[in-house]
């Protein structure tokens, strides 16, 4: 099976200078992949020729005249830039000419345009953004939502759990991945009303619900999946980025303080490099927009080519593992269950 | 001026074996401090004699027969354990026999008993928990609330900002510390309704409001103070703890992988130790319960003696810098302003 994906080449802080090299490398290393490069033809062609990849049989270019800027409002992206690389890339997926779209464009715009173009799966009220973070067990924890939904009801959190379940079950082959509800304590009585209700819904569901988890459990790997509302998830993610950045900078600073610390850095280099590789956040780039009728992967806006390649890989894995099918099936089953358990309509009093 | 503080010696995961050595060290290094050790007399005496500190002129012991366990409910702590070390230590502060209380006891119980015994300052609806986290500027960022309030209205977030302002102005001598509102984007339109309203209140206030900040800004040091609701703050803090723990463990693992990596660790030791010292979370131990009629400092439950000493130091700094006075004055001014700007009562229709 060939996996065909569209690349929004103009998205992100760096545009084609990052997205095109990543795409070229990815097709070179994966024989069963075709990539459609969407964006301003001339800019893409220039990159391709620089990389001597023009005419690659599994790379094609589709022109799109407009670009959604990183600070464009949802309104602008949706109503004013109908020929943006983002929109055209999503349209190709909608027309079934590709199975997934990868974009480093601005999150709000990407979510809005994706919803508009692709629509949500039946039974999904709110799509969510899911990503993976490394954990102490040497694996990773899937966390959602990371910012698509700032105000959630308990039923939304349940849906996020169901979507996370479908994603992890498909991609990692774990039939019953465990699910934690992000809270401020393990006890059932902790948290606000929405969280407590979500806990009840999750306990009553057929999912493998572990219970409440706390922020540190994301990195401990206590559960395969951690569910939270988009506000909390976004803060947890950004806080982690900030802390990792600070610690990384401090290590560098300490090792470059004087000639003798620089000497030590040389000695310690192989070990430091292994450590750096293990925690390299670029390897965790690529968040899935879940709940749409097609697969969309959002890359970090500041991604470099190596990081963007990981986002492409996430799309590739999702397509190959049938994430969308699995998600649709899970939602279908839910709908059926809901209908089956629906109470008999009361006979109206005459 | 002598600073007198009570120590809840039974609180925390380790009780007197941590709290008493920390207290002894602290009085030995600070001539202007008197500490009242509260808890089970025999247990405290045993520790004191082990440290040859029995009879120290600036250490006294007050007996309390009960202990609030780390998993006791608020109900139990409040209604059933009236002779707990926590309660007795707070009572002594209430009776003005000490100026602050330091406890590593469970957060929920400590907040509830503190509120019950000490009461809140006039004008404060909700006390908040504030702590400091290191930032890239080499200083630290004060963050509140960290878990006292899981459901906040905009006016509560404004009060947290006012309390944070009073704390930082007093302790750090910054007259107009900058305040950031934790959000999921910098733009004014981001976030949920409560956050948007809080932003409006902060912009209209006399505080030095910077605007919205994101999770990474805590560690960047973008503002002196970051304000958020207790749910979000707690998740940010715990997530940071989890990430720091994971990274620390990974560095250790990499350096102890083989004989040659162990050798490298020896070479790199001085640098790694400096780094470890800089990011040592124990130096940031001690969160202030703000908004009460007296000072209460909450230490991490798992603190060791070194960390607990830092919590005592935080209490000491707060007392010496007149944090409580500053807070009361700020709240008084607010009250006056509120009264002055109150609209004329409407003449009731007859």
UniProtKB/TrEMBL annotation, chains A, B:
GO terms for cellular component: cytoplasm. It holds the Pfam family FA_synthesis. Pathway: Lipid metabolism; phospholipid metabolism. Keywords: Acyltransferase, Cytoplasm, Lipid biosynthesis, Lipid metabolism, Phospholipid biosynthesis, Phospholipid metabolism, Transferase. SUPFAM superfamilies: Isocitrate/Isopropylmalate dehydrogenase-like. Its EC number is 2.3.1.274. PANTHER family: FATTY ACID/PHOSPHOLIPID SYNTHESIS PROTEIN PLSX, PHOSPHATE ACYLTRANSFERASE. Homodimer. Probably interacts with PlsY. Belongs to the PlsX family. This is Phosphate acyltransferase. The gene is plsX.
């Amino acid at each position: 099976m060939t996996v065909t994906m569209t690349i929004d080449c103009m998205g992100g802080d760096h545009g084609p200078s990052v997205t095109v090299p990543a795409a070229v490398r990815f097709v070179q290393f994966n024989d069963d992949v075709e990539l459609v490069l969407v964006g301003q033809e001339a800019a893409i062609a220039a990159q391709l020729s620089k990389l001597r990849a023009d005419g690659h049989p599994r790379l094609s270019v589709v022109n799109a005249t407009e670009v959604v800027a990183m600070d464009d409002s949802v309104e602008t992206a949706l109503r004013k830039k109908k020929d943006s690389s983002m929109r055209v890339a999503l349209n190709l997926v909608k027309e079934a000419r590709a199975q997934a779209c990868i974009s480093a464009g601005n999150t709000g715009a990407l979510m809005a345009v994706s919803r508009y173009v692709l629509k949500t799966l039946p039974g999904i009220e709110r799509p969510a953004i899911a990503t993976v973070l490394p954990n102490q067990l040497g694996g990773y924890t899937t966390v959602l939502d990371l910012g698509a939904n700032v105000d959630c009801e308990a039923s939304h959190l349940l849906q996020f759990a169901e979507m996370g379940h479908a994603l992890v079950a498909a991609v990692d082959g774990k039939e019953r991945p465990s699910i934690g509800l992000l809270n401020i304590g393990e006890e059932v009585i902790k948290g606000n009303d929405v969280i407590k209700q979500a806990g009840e819904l999750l306990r009553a569901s057929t999912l493998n619900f572990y219970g409440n988890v706390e922020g540190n459990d994301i990195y401990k790997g206590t559960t395969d999946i951690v569910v939270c509302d988009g506000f909390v998830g976004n803060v947890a993610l950004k806080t982690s980025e900030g802390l990792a950045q600070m610690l990384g900078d401090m290590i560098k600073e300490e090792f470059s303080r004087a000639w003798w610390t620089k000497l030590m850095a040389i000695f310690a280099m192989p070990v430091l490099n292994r450590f750096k590789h293990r925690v390299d956040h670029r390897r965790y780039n690529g968040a899935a927009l879940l709940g749409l009728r097609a697969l969309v992967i959002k890359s970090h806006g500041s991604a470099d080519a190596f990081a963007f390649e990981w986002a492409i890989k996430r799309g590739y894995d999702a397509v190959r593992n049938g994430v969308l099918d699995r998600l649709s099936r899970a939602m279908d089953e839910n709908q059926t269950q809901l209908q089956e358990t629906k109470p008999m309509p009361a006979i109206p009093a005459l």
